[in-house]
Amino acid sequence: MIKLANALSNFNRFVSLAFIFIWFALLVTPSGIHIFISNSEKSNSENRELALLPPTPLTLRDRLSWPGKMDLYLNDHFGLRMEMIEWNNLVHFNIFRDLNSLQLTSGKDDFLFFNSHIAQDPLSMIHFLCGRRTKPHDYQNMATTLSAFMHLALATIPNSHFAVVPTKPVVYQDKFPDWLQQQCTGAIPPVPEIIKQVKRDPSLAGKIISPVSEMREIATRHEFYTKANFHWIGDGARPVAQLIASDFFHLSAILALPTAPKKEPADIQRFLPGVRLENNFSEPNYQKAGITECRGSVCFPEFSTSAAKIGDLSRFTHSDNKGPKLLIISDSFGNGIAGLFSEYFGEIWHISVNNIKTLTPAELSSVRDISLNQFKPDHVLFLWHDFSIGYFDQNAKIFVTAHKN
After folding, report:
1. Going along 298-357, which residue ranges are E strands?
2. Which residue ranges run through the membrane (predicted)?
3. Residue 41, pLDDT score
4. Which residues of the chain have pLDDT under 50?
5. For 372, which DSSP code?
6. What is the DSSP letter of 339?
7. How many domains are there within the chain?
8. What are the phi and psi torsion angles at 16 (to 5°)?
9. What gap in Å lies between CA 164 and CA 244, rounded to an integer?
10. Angle 154-159-165 from CA coordinates, rounded to 5°
11. Spatial distance between the Cα atoms of 285 and 283, rounded to a whole number of angstroms
12. What is the mean pLDDT of the chain?
């Protein structure tokens, strides 16, 4: 009996020591990882700017604010933080189908919607597009902006058109969850009203492209946007390219692009670290069609150092150089449609102007001169997604008005 009591006592002592050791290890492991193992790469996957290490306080005011700044830094950088965030996202998504991100909304039939460019203002993009955030005077102001821009563009680039791309929340609004459908019920979507006002000007009526009804009808048999993506990819935009080329540029197809299946991560993946979101889609096979596909700054040696600043560039050229030339000036949505115009054009240049403000006046003038006067496109297409209709001109106008000093 004594031996049994001693054995139990030793066992209890062992369990107590083991518990203390495990508890201590749990407490110090995050700190140890933070001190000895860099976690900077994973930190970058979070969709916000993390707090920076505060500098050594030198003044009394700095000393008073330093503890709070250090607390924010430690909250953002302690060891295993990103792993915990990823595990939490994974559990919420796989078990509860819950998107642990304010900027994403889960819809019907596994559709995922990117709902806002600003985490502090969730649903702002969807509410704008369905009409909850706009009034008649807003329509008029945005219509005036679009009209003024097109008159400016046509004065110097007569062969211009402007396309407003309906995004996923507009094309697939029927896939909204019921609560979001109810929020948008009764509201008047602003973009059709804006386009209607602009087209009252006879000189602009044939220059503005907004294929909302066409895309909604075609969406019953063609996937414009995959369930887990914000942008269109692969051959998603093909019907829109065909519509623009045939109905607005009055061109006939010179070939049909073959496609092949492809899989890649969704573009909203960064908003949900730890959860694997993938797209399955059809990708055009440019090589098989005899087309040289090139993406990125290396494709435009003509632009010199400006190409790296612009970043989002692409170029598609037929091997036999047959067909007219197209220049696309766009936001991020130009990348997914540019190559699909190869069915109608012998050479396409695509330039996103999202970063155009980083160029010097001389660089801006050079890029514009090369694009318009050296490339000499037969058609110029300005293309922006629908949510940007209230601010697109901030970058588009810079390209149009760039001149040599």
Report:
1. 313-318, 325-330, 347-352
2. 12-37
3. 46
4. 26, 40-41, 43-45, 404-405
5. I
6. G
7. 2
8. -65, -45
9. 11
10. 85
11. 6
12. 86
CB contact set of 330 (below 8 Å; sequence gap of 6+): 350, 351, 352, 353, 381, 382, 383, 384
pTM of the model: 0.82
Under DSSP, is residue 114 helix (H, G, I), strand (E, B) or coil?
strand
In a domain, 253, yes or no: yes
pLDDT attached to residue 377: 97
Alpha-carbon distance 274 to 100, whole Å? 11
- Three-state DSSP class for residue 182: helix
Please state whether beta strands 259-265 and 278-284 pair in parallel, antiparallel, or not at all (unpaired): antiparallel
Boundaries of domain holding 197: 134-401
Rounded to whole angstroms, how far apart are CA atoms 296 and 316? 12
Establish if 279 belongs to a structural domain: yes
At 48 the pLDDT is: 55
Are the C-beta atoms of 364 and 265 separated by less than 8 Å?
Answer: no
Torsion of CA 321, 323, 327, 333, to 10 degrees: -100
pLDDT of 15: 56
Long-range contacts of residues 308-313, Cβ cutoff 8 Å, at least 24 apart:
309/355, 309/358, 309/359, 309/363, 310/351, 310/352, 310/353, 310/355, 310/356, 310/359, 310/367, 311/352, 311/355, 312/351, 312/352, 312/354, 312/355, 313/350, 313/351, 313/352
363 Cα distance to chain centroid: 26
Find tokens 């949510």 and name the residue: 387
Q: Judge whether 236 lies within some domain.
A: yes
Q: Name the nearest CA neighbour of 331 among 378, 400, 393, 264.
A: 393
Half-sphere exposure (CA, 13 Å, Cβ side) for 301? 0
| CA pair distance 207, 338, nearest whole angstrom | 19
Tokens of 298: 């290396």
Say how far apart CA 385 and CA 191 lie, in whole Å.
Answer: 11
Kindly state whether residue 288 falls inside one of the protein's structural domains: yes
Chain Cα centroid distance, residue 308: 19
